[in-house]
Amino acid sequence: MQDIIMTSTDEFDLDVLDLITAFSKLSLKNPPIYQVPNDILYILFRLVCAGPPSLETLKQALALTHVCGSWRAITIRIPHLWTYAHMFHKSPLGRFDEGPHNRVGVVDSLLRRSARLPFEFHLVGKDFVDMSWGAGSEVAPMFEKAFRPRSLRCEKLRIAIPWNRHLDMLLDGVRGMRMSVLKRVEWDIVRGERLVVDLEPREEEEGDPGYGPDVRMFGWNALRPGFALPKYHALLGWLGATYRITTLSIKYLPGVTPVALHPALLASKDTLVYLALYNHQPVDETESAIQLEPVCLPKLERLDIGYMQPSVLLGFVKLLLLPALKHLSVRDFGGCPETNERVTPTHFGGVGEELNTNRSKDAYQLLVGLVDSVISAQSKARVLAKLDMYGVMCRTTTRLLVLQPLRELVLGLHSLAMVQCDGRFPQLLKIITAGCSPGHLKSLKELVMTGHPVHTMLLDYLRTRKSVDLPKLKSLGVCTRMAAFRHFFEEFVEAQPQVVVGS
């Protein structure tokens, strides 16, 4: 085997399948197979790709991929016949488009084998804390040269990089390509910033919806001098002008303000069915004062919003009219973070008060804004059926004031979740239940309630439901401590209570 590895690549003349078998046997005895020189690995893939497409060729390539499962420059995965490219960037690389390290040539030869099939392209470099300026500048040309020839067939594009310092170069490359069958774009920064967009192609007769990719459409002229241009807006502008956006998820991106998001919402108002917005940065007072026309989203069925401070999202909520919304989720991810997140976003100061004070965490005004955006827009036919609240607090507002927006939101729900929320919410639910007609509350079938101190108040609320002849709940989610008292819930819930993870 050592003779094979030491052989000059110019004299490389062996049967590919025999060599794969030899590598397989070696990997069983000597696991660090990844020490095989890059030039040998690339020659192997070139030999495999040189022949005509066949089942035997596919088997050989699959075997080779299995043996060389971790490459130092590129990882190729083959769930289908060359429809998935996963380009892995590591510095230093040397020349990326010539010699034995020609990653562009390898990707191109692989994807050429399925010239008529759509494929996914993933450019990943997120396992590194940072990249030097020189190494980072190689990512954009490497990506563009490998991806552009096949961009017309790309259905999913995912780019994961450790830092957004070279974001503008990557975006410039993407916006210049034709991707007529593109269905999904994912932008992932290691710090936690994420942009996910699902798309549909625009009909040719639709043309430009009037909100083209000109950067001025995003209100950059309203930003204070010296503010770094948020390149995500340019990507959103291009996507909105080229495709019909069906789902839009924006989490922890810097510089996302009502003025910046307004044109993207206008461009996709007739197609958007899901919108997620998690914002952790304060909004400038000057921009907050800008009056924008509300946007009606007649097809939006789900809205997820998250904040460090609820005042940050108030401007966004005032923009929206949601007559078809069925599922609303509100999360204070400072006090109740997402359980599946690897990175906790940092808070950017400058709002004039401490982050975790009761005043800065009070979500009363946000709840009032949601009533205006959702309930008032559904005055003719209410369709909101599911409300999830995580860590929502209203500690500096009196119970009497909080009662009104909470009442408007919970009436007619089929499912309600209050996880680690204000301890007064169960008391308010009890008041609402005792004072409303049972017909407005009988649709509630699923309830999740955790936090401290809600234990006795939850039982009081359930007893109140029974006293007004409301039917039993079909399911109940509680914290671990409450789940131990299963016998208390038998007369209120049809099934055994479920423990809510992380409560």
Protein model, in words:
It is a single chain. The protein has 503 residues and is an alpha/beta fold. Among the domains are: 1-70, no CATH class; 411-503. The protein is built from 17 helices and 16 strands. The protein has helices at residues 2-6, 16-29, 38-50, 55-67, 103-112, 133-147, 167-175, 231-242, 258-267, 285-288, 311-319, 358-361, 364-375, 399-410, 425-435, 455-467, 480-483, and strands at 84-88, 119-124, 154-161, 184-189, 194-201, 243-251, 274-279, 295-296, 302-307, 320-321, 327-332, 386-390, 415-419, 446-449, 475-478, 498-499. The strands form 2 sheets. The protein has a 14-stranded mixed β-sheet. The longest helix is centred in the first third of the chain and has 15 residues, at 133-147. The radius of gyration is 28 Å and the shape is elongated. It comes from Laccaria amethystina LaAM-08-1.
Helix content: 25-40%
Major sheet attributes: 14 strands, mixed
Mean pLDDT: 71
Give the low-pLDDT segments.
1-14, 26-34, 65-82, 126-136, 207-229, 347-355
Strand order of the largest sheet: 1-2-3-4-5-6-7-9-11-12-13-14-15-16
- Got a strand count? 16
Derived structural class = alpha/beta
Helix count, DSSP H or I runs of 4 or more residues:
17
Radius of gyration: 28 Å
Report the end-to-end length measured between terminal Cα atoms.
56 Å
Oligomer: single chain
Basic shape: elongated
Strand content: 15-25%
Organism: Laccaria amethystina LaAM-08-1
Protein name: Unplaced genomic scaffold K443scaffold_149, whole genome shotgun sequence
